[in-house]
Design a protein that fits this description.
80 residues; mainly alpha; 4 helices
């Protein structure tokens, strides 16, 4: 891993987790934590997936294209 990749991951996590947050759903949080505990690679894989999704533009002009969800913009890294 390069220093730039390291910085990119930290910047993504800071952006995604910084700022105001909705209240935590305790039951969902328990399920996610238990899954991550049983599957140590899950946090890495979910983070990489979220980063890839944040960089993938959605084509909303097409009639059958998926619509952008409310949380999707939160995943996009801030412009410097």
């Amino acid at each position: 891993m390069t220093l730039q990749e390291h910085k990119t991951i930290l910047a993504f996590l800071d952006h995604a987790l910084g700022g105001p947050q909705e209240p935590l759903d305790v039951e969902a949080d328990a399920i996610i934590r238990a899954y991550f505990k049983r599957n140590p690679d899950a946090a890495y894989r979910v983070t990489k997936l979220a980063m890839a999704l944040a960089q993938t533009p959605l084509v909303e002009d097409e009639p059958n294209a998926p619509k952008r969800r409310r949380w999707f913009p939160m995943l996009k890294p801030r412009e410097a």
